[in-house]
Design brief:
By secondary structure, the protein is of the alpha/beta class. The chain contains 9 helices and 6 strands; from the N terminus they run αβαααβββαβααβαα.
């Protein structure tokens, strides 16, 4: 029997919907399986990830894995973790960082892909673009306020700041983040990944 998710991921890999708007050839970067227990919803691949084709293959990914308390073997095992950014291709750079994710992925793919991830126990939402899609009722509120109120989010949901080295100042100003939130996040990640071992 054909695997509908595998067929969909193959379609995504061949996607050229926004090719005219990109400064390079499209290279969608997404990983998922129907049995994934954790969803990481980020923004879009950066230049290094575009070049390697490996999601979170940069300093931000190193910090994110540290926050989650997982090694690369678990992180890149799609039975554990689905890596579904809001934009699947690197959007290019602007004066102060990368451009926003292209909207075509959200419009064309997310509504087809996310319903196939029926075993999710934990959603990790990183940044405003993912927040607007996954928690639209909170859209427009300052991200810091949402992260600070992490205990009030729906069960199994965490909103995180981007783990980029550019946010080092934020991490220093908010030590509670790594002292209070991260241990709880790691415990929930551990419970979700242990469920399929």
């Amino acid at each position: 029997m054909p695997d509908p998710l595998a067929a969909l991921l193959a379609e995504i890999a061949d996607c050229r919907i926004c090719a005219a708007h990109l400064p390079h050839q499209p290279r969608p970067v997404v990983r998922a399986s129907a049995g994934a227990r954790i969803l990481i919803a980020g923004q879009a691949p950066g230049r290094k990830v575009h070049e390697s084709g490996v999601p979170w293959d940069d300093a931000s990914g190193d910090r994110l894995r540290q926050w989650l308390g997982v090694d690369k073997d678990v992180f890149y095992d799609s039975r554990h973790i689905a890596l579904v950014p809001m934009g699947f291709c690197y959007p290019g750079s602007a004066a102060s960082g990368d451009l926003p994710p292209r909207p075509e992925c959200m419009q064309h793919w997310h509504g087809r892909l996310l319903p196939q991830l029926g075993q999710l126990r934990l959603r990790i939402i990183i940044g405003q673009y993912a927040l607007r899609y996954h928690l639209p009722d909170l859209a427009g509120r300052p991200l810091t306020g949402i992260v600070t109120g992490w205990r009030d989010l729906p069960a199994g949901t965490f909103v995180l700041p981007h783990p980029s080295p550019r946010n080092q100042g934020w991490f220093k100003r908010h030590p509670w983040f790594e002292q209070d939130l991260i241990p709880v996040l790691q415990d929930q990640v551990r419970q979700a990944t242990l469920a399929i071992r």
